[in-house]
Amino acid sequence: MANSFTRMITGRNTAVMMAMGAGTLASAFLLNDSTAAAERRRFYPPSADYPDLRKHNNCMAAAMTPTIYARLRDKATPNNWTVDQCIQTGVDNPGHPFIKTVGMVAGDEESYEVFAELFDPVIKDRHNGYDPRTMKHPTDLDSSKVTSGMFDERYVLSSRVRTGRSIRGLSLPPACTRSERREVERVVVTALSGLKGELAGRYYSLGEMTEREQQQLIDEHFLFDKPVSPLLTAAGMARDWPDARGIWHNNEKNFLIWINEEDHTRVISMEKGGNMKRVFERFCRGLKKVEHLIQERGWEFMWNERMGYILTCPSNLGTGLRAGVHIRLPLLSKDPRFKKILENLRLQKRGTGGVDTAATGDTFDISNLDRLGKSEVELVQLVIDGVNYLIECEKRLERGQDIKIPSPIAQFKR
Amino acid sequence: MAAMKNCHNDYKMKFSVDEEFPDLSLHNNHMAKVLTKDIYSKLRGKSTPSGFTVDDVIQTGVDNPGHPFIMTVGCVAGDEESYEIFKELLDPIISDRHGGYKPTDKHKTDLNFENLKGGDDLDPNYVLSSRVRTGRSIKGFTLPPHNSRGERRGIEKLSIEALSTLDGEFKGKYYPLNGMTDAEQEQLIADHFLFDKPVSPLLTCAGMARDWPDGRGIWHNDNKTFLVWVNEEDHLRVISMQKGGNMKEVFRRFCVGLQKIEEVFKKHNHGFMWNEHLGYILTCPSNLGTGLRGGVHVKLPKLSTHAKFEEILTRLRLQKRGTGGVDTASVGGVFDISNADRLGSSEVDQVQLVVDGVKLMVEMEKKLEKGESIDGMIPAQK
Question: Are B11 and A80 an interchain contact pair (Cβ–Cβ within 8 Å)?
Fold first, then answer.
């Protein structure tokens, strides 16, 4: 299907593969010297533009130095994305003393290469010391390997696995033009229309859905809104809203895809109850089918063996996977050891509204902390084992028995 | 002046007009009313020397569809050259917004406060405070939607230098947003001087809040009657204000202070952006010309509920706002009444309209208090 996009992909793939394969930096364009914009840059040396990060607490601010900035400021990716654009969200959002955000985003696949000098330490900081220059990330979507994935439904109310996927050759949400965003929508929606059986479904464009459809999607907890978090808006991800944004879900309502929110696509498998194995099985099957369908038309997902799946935020590199449950833990959640138990199991708790929300009552969202350096199968198994352990603790506390803090789980193999 | 090319825009040109044209079907703003695929096609290949493109101009209008009742502008300039290079889009918007102002029209600048007649006798029982504000852009720097941290700091540095030369009634002090003490901050809030990081999506989508609060600050004189905002929505916002109804004095201080500041900037070869067609160049096309909003807080509980209130305002070329400023409601019958025009008439003309109009409205209010009719006082269209 020859069109301007596929032609560009061939070119870009070549450049990217040469760069990744050869282990050298991707073709970084020095901003054109003949423009007055370049003159302005000469008049203002990097030191004049160096951001004031003294009050900041995020990974970008921790990694940034005047030397790094001076080396990167005048570079650009082939799509002309600059380091200033990567870090804008981190400059505009100093963060909170207790919560360390990432503070930078990629505008395209090449950002991670052209600005590696800044992305690498940020990735290391965020992903427990993972070094993308020397380490390899394992990808494993074979759901049959997972064991004991059926939770006690007296405690686990629902199970969910989500990830993100980016379409290679198109810029990411902070940088994409309207036509690129519309192309992402076209590519993905076309592919999804090829899904059959349990996965067959339909697409609801955010701009065109009826009021009734909108209410239905809200009631099912499927609808996503225009981002209000300044972390996202300062990165330019809400531009042109709601153009080319939408939600696809299957008729069974347990496989769902968000298009052009924070990433090109967010893929979600979920159902009520504790059958995490089935949720993960559907997740893997659906993902593989979608990948196959886009490949038939000459597209592919952004992925490489050092960083796994490439997504907008460095925190989602690797698997981009968050597997979790909504679980009732009335006794354990009040135990002073709860936090440490979660920490050692490499789990995190969130409120039932998702990130940055509070828990209602005794019900928590419990999911994996890690994304990069462990495979999808490993992470889901980690969640399964961890949640089973939490349930065991809750039962023991019910019976008046004591509980133990488990030993910390080992980090990724080097 | 030849428009130089910008690499990022070259990349975008690979996509067709149809593929890139924004969806404006739900939009109600000046930009959406004017922009056609034809205009977009002609302008998308251009950029100003500093790299500002038509997509940059319109982003705020694309992201903010607007309100059926309130027509926003929906575009901004990134630099002085924007108004020239994108004139095919901006001229019709300027005409719509500024009462049919033509591309060939000339704008009159008059900052000679002595030309103002009256204005020193507005009844302080009704007129609680008087204020005149405008904006100024510094030549040689790009505007808030586009400028880099280095440029913004350069503007701040020059502004501090210019303001520190002021003496006499203008002697004052600069408070950088990122460095004021808690006590200073409280005082500035109590004085109603402090401006905050913009939250309005009209501004944030245009990129004006980037790097906040870097390079931003407030300067005011010791008397607290002359105030300058640095690097908010424009390079400078200059404000003269005081309690009571002596608009003449407020305007005198405004003109004198502005001229003093301008002299210092000119000495550094960074005068104010101005031309004889558009007057003073500011970020938003709605503030071209004088950029002036002269107004009062005035008690008009009876007149404001009169059936002809809106019509009177329109005929007097005035607009009402709540006492919190744009997009706020009035409290206790007190309104912010100011000039509606910015471009096509001079500063003196506009403040004269406010002075004369408010005087008339206060007389109307007094009449209504006495239970008398004001039908004979309704003015002709100015």
Answer: yes
